[in-house]
Amino acid sequence: MARSIWLRQERSGRGPAPEHSRAQIAAAAMELADAGGLDALSMRKVAAAVGAGAASLYRYVETRDELLELMADAAAGEIEISRPPSGDWRADLVALAHEIREVYRRHPWMLDIAPGRVAFGPRTVDVLEYALAVMRDLDVPAGTKMEAFALMNGFVALLVRTETAMGGATTDWQESQAEFLASVVTAGRHPHLAAAFTAPPAPPVADLLDGVLPRVLTGLLDSGR
């Protein structure tokens, strides 16, 4: 048995045509997860949503993890990658990060899929290919570019998880933390933190994707040269 559903044909050369496509199954599963999270997802509910018997759904997906693979890849297909690279790899990667964040916001259940639990699908591979095309002129090993893509995706996922937990943007949280830390350093027990607060302040950042991610990516890709 193939490890990934993508290594099996959707329709074999013999037998009747399938009544339901993978796209239909993924769409039904995503609607359930969008409404109630992964806890609301079951093979029985997905089968009912597409008008199939619970047992017959296993003709299309053999496990729940395969269902998650279909869903994650369908979500990746919502990421806009039709724009040609501009030549500014930082700007292009940050723009891609914004696209990925919007997909996480629309489908927060994606944050609950454990890393490594589902395999790459064809549309996920298309997103990776686009990111590598953006970085094609960088004189760094291909493995470093793959690491940069993984780091960017992890950064976006962490940011969206934080936004979700806080009910919105992180600006208010950053301000409240800065106020608390400023009060702490006055006690004199944290000299290194006090030095950081007396240094010239960094320009305010309205969006961490625009203000922090470019520096993170630059540090990784420059150190990989």
Task: Explain what this protein looks like in three dimensions.
By secondary structure, the chain is mainly α. It contains ten helices and no strands. Helix 4 packs across helix 6.
Give a nutshell description of this structure.
This protein has helices at 22-36, 43-50, 64-76, 89-106, 122-134, 142-166, 171-185, 191-198, 208-211, 213-223. The protein has 225 residues and is mostly helical. The mean pLDDT is 86.
Keywords:
225 residues; mainly alpha; 10 helices; 0% strand; globular
The number of distinct helices, counting runs of at least 4 residues, comes to 10
Structural class, from secondary structure content? mainly alpha
Proportion of β residues? Answer: under 5%
User: What is the alpha-carbon Rg in Å?
Assistant: 22 Å
Number of strands: 0
Give the uncertain stretches in residue-range form: none
> Can you give the mean pLDDT?
86
Calculate the terminal CA-CA distance, rounded to whole Å.
Answer: 41 Å
**Proportion of residues in helical segments:** 55-70%
Order of helices and strands: HHHHHHHHHH
The gross shape turns out to be globular
What about the largest sheet? none
Which helices and strands appear, and what pairs or packs with what?
Blueprint: H1 22-36, H2 43-50, H3 64-76, H4 89-106, H5 122-134, H6 142-166, H7 171-185, H8 191-198, H9 208-211, H10 213-223
Helix pairs in contact: 1-2, 1-3, 3-5, 4-6, 4-10, 6-10
